[in-house]
Structure formats: structure tokens, C-alpha cells
Write a structure and sequence with these properties.
The complex is a heterodimer.
Chain A lengths: L1 H17 L3 H12 L4 H8 L5 H31 L25 H15 L3 E2 L5 E2 L1 H4 L25 E2 L5 H7 L6 E10 L11 E11 L4 H16 L5 E5 L5 E10 L16 E3 L3 E4 L1 H6 L8 E8 H8 L13 H4 L3
Parallel strand pairs in A: 1-4
Antiparallel strand pairs in A: 2-3, 4-5, 5-10, 6-7, 7-8, 7-9, 9-10
Helix pairs in contact in A: 1-2, 1-4, 2-4, 5-10
Chain B lengths: L1 E3 H7 L6 H10 L3 E8 L2 E7 L10 H12 L20 E3 L7 E8 L8 H9 L7 H13 L4 E4 L7 E6 L5 E3 L5 E3 L5 E5 L4 E4 L3 E2 L11 E8 L2 H10 L5 H8 L6 H16 L2 E2 L4 E4 L6 E6 H8 L5 H10 L4 E6 L2 E8 L9 H12 L25 H12 L3 E2 L5 E2 L1 H6 L20 E2 L4 H11 L7 E8 L4 E8 L3 H15 L5 E4 L7 E10 L4 E8 L1 H7 L6 E6 H7 L15 E8 L6 H9 L5 E10 L2 E8 L8 H19 L2 E2 L2
Parallel strand pairs in B: 4-7, 19-22
Antiparallel strand pairs in B: 1-3, 2-3, 5-13, 5-14, 5-15, 6-13, 7-10, 8-9, 10-11, 11-12, 16-18, 17-18, 20-21, 22-23, 23-27, 24-25, 25-26, 26-27, 28-30, 28-31, 29-30
The chains are: A alpha+beta, B alpha+beta.
Amino acid sequence: MEEKILNLKNEALAQIVSAKNQDELERLHQAYLGRKGKLSLIIKEIPNLPLGKRVDIGRLSNDAKKAIEEAINRQQSAILIKPKGLEKEWIDVTSPGIKPEKGHLHPQTQVLEKILNIFNFLGYQVAQGPEIETDWYNFEILNIPKDHPSRDTMQTLYLDNGKLLRTHTSSMQGRVMEKAKPPFRVVVPGKCFRFEQVDPSHGFEFWQVEGFAVDKNITLTDLFGTISYVLKKLFGEKTMLKFACTNFPFVEPGVDTYMKCTVCQGKGCSFCKNLGWSEIMPAGMIHPGVLEKSGIDPQKYSGFAFAIGLSRIVNLMYQMNDLRLLTLPDLRILNQF
Amino acid sequence: MLVPLSWLKEYIETDLPVKKLADRLTEVGFSVEVIKKVENDEILEIEVTPNRPDCLSISGIAREVGAITGNKVKIPKAEIPKAKGKLEIEIVNDFKLCPRYTALIIDGIQIKPSPPFIQKRLKKIGLRPINNLVDITNYVMFETGNPLHAFDYDKITPKKLLTQKSKGGEKFESVDGISYVLPKDAIIIKDSEDRVIDLCGLKGGSNTGISEQTNTLFLHAPVYNPVLIRRASQALSLRSDASAIFERGANPGGTLNTLKRAASLILKYAGGEITSEIIDLKKEKFEPWTIKLRHPRLEKILGIKINPTKVKEILESLGMESKLKTQNSEIIYDIDIPTHRGDLKMEEDLIEEVARIYGYNNFPKSLPLGETPVEKIPFFKDFSLEEKIKQILAGSGYSEIYTYSLISKRALENIGLDLEKALRVSNPVSGEYEYLRPSLIPNLLSAFLLNQPNFSEIKLFEFGKIYPEEKLMLSGIANSDYYHVKGILELIFQELGIENPTFKPYVKRDILYHPAKTAVIETSRALLGTVGEVNPAVLTKAGIKGKVVIFNLDFELISKLTRVVKKFFPIPEFPPIIEDLAFVIPPKTFVGDLIQLIKVSSSIIQSVELLDVHENTRTFRIIYQHPDKTLTDKEVGKIRKKIIESAEKKFGARIKG
């Protein structure tokens, strides 16, 4: 019996050492250690042996089992390290990979997500509201009564039902403020419409992101700081900005934000009307009249508001020279993003 | 507004290089868009915002340069000799239309070309010189900012004028020979023979216009009601340099000086003498008014500390006298506002004045302090769901597009949408963009067509509103087969935790969808949308080749049904039993219904999957699993029997093998 076990072990070790691949090793494992393997059969017999022999035979066959297992493991590692036969299975690793099919998110979606994340970080909430708007929210509440000359700068598309298509997302200032109480920190992305002759930097449909903050101590420096933070987060810390005074009836003081044109690096191009600077973020301190009409006491609260020309920012972000490219659903454009 | 630098420098000294001057003007609110070089001069093209009619004049811009540089502005102050002789005219003024009416008569003038310096300047600002009288009125308007008009005194008969509103329908011939039918409520001047001699602010009448023969002049410098001027201007689509000033509000304190200045130039370059007292009709004094500015309020809004002397200095540079006082330990300025600054009405307006001259780019920057609002605002919108779905679609090969909300009548009709229900723009930019889209599909079809020449595989989607309800929709188009599109939708529903949406044959007949290859997607509670092949007739009309599948989902509904909160279920402890059952089914059996039938046969069926389709055979892989015990063959056998029996009974499906 003892001899049989030793022979079996030697036979196994010899075969294992000359095994050339994984399959062969697997077979040998089965042949000796499998359920009906040669060594396994012997081990199964152990309980039937006379009591005195059981211990010795048991130890011996366990040793043999361990030795065979170790040999198999060793040989396995050897085969893996020096995979002789595998060399035939050559592939051309320089040949192009097979990409999974993937579509592309519109650049506007990508930029909007970035913008909203920045504002989210600053504690702003997102709101969205109607594009079909009343004269009240689009104009009157914003200090633009009928016959106000500044209506000329926002030529309006009117609807057969007597309403209009909002000319700016500022229409949401009144809508949000009249329904809740300060403090507010709100951003409103959305589509706007104007009766406008189309050119590279103007369209009759475009997107804005309106934002406003109202609280007890909101200042003009807060507005400058917010605009500056947001645009630098978006375009990089070296972004060149300048502020200028301007007039919108719904802000006082009024602010215009210019960013060095990224399309032409400030040299002047059709996109920035050859100015080298692009006007991208009109803003200002919310006019007391607007707060009052929205049910907020302007002596107690102050606030700022701004409108980001989203479509224009997308253009500037990717140096696209025409707003119309954003509504052109051409995969040759979309696949770049 | 065109501003020649040489003309500007007559009223204000400045050493600033023109580029720097332009930058500073832009900073204080007068955006310089172009600097043009002409001969030895430079012309600034300045955008003047509607609140600053005073800056539609060279002296107005000069005052701004004065504020920037701190230099004193020298606006010509004219004095005229006393009237000689006396020519009569009677004015019946309606002060609601014309709050101030200033005029005089000059006799014995001679019409000839205006002096070269006036002609040159007018040309630089884009005006064509005509004769000394017309040119002088234009020149003085651009110098001072108050419009004037000259009539031929001899043609006014009898010598009585009335300012009134037009009734509408009156005929009027302008001095340049164009006939107009007047709208209602335009401001007009009639003589007592009921002739309209002036369409105020817009055009003078031909019946009293200046000609070569004009000898006596009736010259007026009025201030009109801005709203009425604007309405008339819009009704007639007629604008003039004067109407631009009037509709924004002409300086009521400036008419007298303007009239005198024009008269003095006329005497100098056209001869003649003054033959009437100055007529100056007004009911108010039109003197500077006072606004109170609280220093603490100024600092609170601006967010900076600023010395009161600096504030006073800025106000002075703008031509505003201020008195400082202390009230309840607050510093307060009482500020006198000159009449040309009609835009300054309240404290905030003055805060802006201080801030803009202080220089916006000199301000420090800060972020709002105070608590961050967390309570959900009205109109709150969560974009995360949209972003998630967009990622899934992009990951599945779909590209996102944004298209116009406005579409053409033809685009609506091509897919059989009801024109009556679509909302129309009353003043569209063009027929291509006339209706608010009631569906995203027309634009997806056009987008597909656009890409057809360049791509063999086209998969597009759009998130967008449809109108008039402004419902957010998710629609897509692809030239893949129905099952691939359906699979993506199922994946989306699964990700959103929308349970068991069913796809049922679409029975409504419309021209867009293929009648036998379209499904409606429902849950037990709502209709989520449709998916199916586009009717070949529509594709042919659109010029699209091949088969195209579209989907159209009501995203608003979907976001309401979404369950984003995930719940953990422990890994099953007991092993499942997996078995494959093959059925031979009659043609046109809906396999979805068969799967549903198998699923509901027992609560221990975890899943039913369609494993294989071969001719009339459908093989299903069924996983049985009990949460509390190991299943026996006997238990599964019972369920199997039930499945086979009901499949046979309900669908005539026979078990195979």
C-alpha cells in the first residue's frame, strides 16, 4: 500500500513537470485528485483499513496529495510565466480598437451643466418657467411699461392668443419673487425669443440663464464678485473681464459684462463685432420698483440680477463663430463634442 | 450717435488718447462701438441707452467726458439782440401734448448754403447739408440736444397756430413731398384754416416749409409728450433724429438756450433781425429738482466705503450741486438735478451716478454673505433626471440636438398635425418660423434628412418643449430597428424605476406612424408615449430613405412616475431553479402578452426572458426562486403545468418537446 502511494506520487510528479499547458494540468489534476482520481480512490479506502495502518497510510496519502497539488501549482505558474504555445496566438496590438457605439451630448447641455454646477456650489437653486408669457411679467413688472423706448431693444414676437414669447428669462424674477420670501438665490435657464434679424451673433431663438440673489445685505461688489467667480470658473482663471455701466429699466445701477473674445483672442472678429470684447452678461442691482411690484420691501432688502447669454457662452467656450451652429443638428458638428 | 472728436473738443478739453477715452466712455455707460478715422479727425460711434436723450447731442457727450476727466464743460451760451419791429403770431397750446413751447420770428433772412464748418460737421455725423436754415436747426439740435423746426412765416395764414391731437385720417404732405394719412393721436400743429402744418417731432409740412424764397422765419423749439411721439412714430414707421429725442424726453429746461443759439447763428449766417419777443409757453418752471441721497444707503448698496468729499466731487463733475447735512447721525446729500437729466428720479439713480463715475472696474469683489436658502423655490426644477437620461442615450449611440421651437406650416402638415391647434406667431420673422411646434418630430425628421448624405447610421434625440402647453418631451429618431429602440426605452424606464411599462399595438390611425409597427407605452396609470416606425409615405415626402424608427415620450409624466430612491433587497439565500420552455405559437401572437401571462402565473417566478425566436417557436427562460426555501421539482412542476395550460387556453400556444 505504502509503495503504491509513493509510486503514484512519483508518476504524477513526473507527468506534471512535463505538462505543457493548462488543459494538460487540468486533466492530470482530475486523474489523480479528481472525484474518481487514483489518489482519491486510495484515500476513500482508508476507513476500511485495519486500525493500526490507518494513521500511517492517511499521513502518507495526505503528503502525496499535498505534493501533487503543489507540483500542479508550480507548473501552472511556470506555464503562465513562459507561455510557449501562446506565441502562436499572436494579435496585432497596434490595429485600431473597436469602440462601443457612443452618441454625443450637445455642447449647450454640457456648458449648462457646468454653469448650474457652479451656481449650485454657490448655493443657488434652479427654476424653470413659461416661455409663453404675459406682458406683465416680461415687461411691466420689470419697469418697462407700454410705450417705453427700451422695448425697441427687445423686439417681441406676439402670439395669436394675445400673449407673447418671452424676450428674456428676467420674466422669471417677478414670478418667483412674488410667490416666496427672501432670501433668494435663483438661476433660471431657458429659451428666449426676439423678433430679430439673424446674424452670427443674434438669433430669434436663444438661451439665457437668468440669475438673481435677494437678501438683506446684497451689494454691487457682490454682483461683481459673483460674475467674476462664475466666468473664471467657467473659462479659466486667466479670463479677462471688464464691467461697464448700462441701462436696463429693471436694474439700478446697471452693469454690463464684457469678456475678451475667445473666438479671435481679442483681435476683433465678426462674432464680437470687431470689438475684441464680447458682451455676455448684462446685470445690475434689482430696481426698487421691481422688488416692490414683487411684494418685497426695497428698503429692507436689496438684490442683484444677471442674465448669461448661454448660447453666446457656448460659442465662446468652443471658439464657434456663429450662434446658428448651435441649432444646426449636423452630426459633423455634434460628433466633436 | 456719431461724435467727431474735433467737435467734441470744442466743448471739453481732454488729453486722453482716443482709445482710452472710448474705454472710459464705455465704462460710464456710453458703449463706443467703432472709432472711425476721417481726414484729420476721429469719429466715435456711441450707443446711447434709451434713458439718456441728453446724450443724443455733442454737448451731452461732452458733459460725460467732463465727468470722466474732471475738466469743465464749455457749452456755448447765446444771447440775442432785442426784438426790432413786431410781427404777430398767436399760439393756442395744449400743454398735455406740449409741456413747453418756445418760439420766435426772424425777418429778412436770406437762404443760401451754410458756412463750411457747419457743413463739414454735419457730413461727419452723416447728415446732408441743405441750406443755411435747415443746417443750422440740425446743427444746433446736435449741439444742444433740443430739436427745432423752422417754418416759412409768410405761408402761415392767418397767424394763429394750434397744437392738438390728430383725429386720424387727416392728409398731410411733408416738406420732402411725401403724402401721409395721419394716425389717431399724433401731435400736430394746425393753422386756423385747419391746415396741418407740422407732424410734430417727425416731419414739417410742405405747406409752410422753407424755400429759396423764404424771407421771414417762424422758429420753434418745443418739448412734446414722449408717448404720443413714440406712438405716431411707430404707427407711421417714421423716425427722425428729433423723434428719437422727443420720445425719450427732450430737456424742458433747454429750449430757450437752444432757440437763442439757433437765432444767433441764423442772424450771423442768414442775416435778418428778430421781430418778435420770445414766446415761451409753459405751466411749470422747469428748474432743477432735488433728490435726497443717504450716504449709508449709498455704501450699503455699493458695498464700499467712500468718502463724502469724493461723492460730492463726483456729483459736481456731473454738474450737480449738492448740500451735505447730517440727520439722525446719517450723512445726507440734497442734490440739485439739472433739467437735462430727466432720467434721475430717485435715490438709486444717484447711487448709479456715483458708482459709474467712481468706475466699475475700481470696485473690489465679494460674494453674498448670509444664509443659503434651502427651502424649495417656486418653479423649482431638478435637472438631474434629464442629465441621467441624456447620458444613457448618449451611451447608447444617440446624439443630442437642440432645434427651434418655431416651425413652418408645411412642417406641421407633412406629418398630419392639426394647424388649428397649433399656436401661431402674429408677427413671425418668416414663414419658416411661424408656428410653435406641437411636436418635436418635424425637426427630428429634418435633422435626419440633413445628416443622411454624410452618415449611414443616424441616431438623434431632443429634449424640448411642445406647445401650447409647454410640455417637456423627449423624442428621438434612428435608422435602427424597432427592438433596439424599444430596448433603450426599456433601459431608461428601468433606470428611472418606472415599473412595468407595457408596449401595446398602436390602434389610433394617424399618418405619421406605420400602422402595424408602432406601440403605445403605458403604465397602469398613464400613457407615456409612442414608439414605432415612421410611415413610409411620410418618409418619402420628407425625402428620407430606408426605415426610420421614432419615439416620442411625455417627459413630464415620466419624471412624475420616476422612483429615484433605491431600495436594497438582500441577495437570495436559496438557489433558483432555471428552466427553458419552448412554445409553438399561432402567427401574430403578441409575445409580450405571453410573457406577462407566464410572469403572473406564480409569485415565485423572478423573471421571464425571451431566449430564442425560431419560426413559430418561442423559447422562454424562466427563473423560479423562493425567498424562504429551496424549491423542489414537484413545486416547480405544478407551476409549469399551470403555465402550459393557460398558454394553450389563452393563446393556443403548444409546449414543445
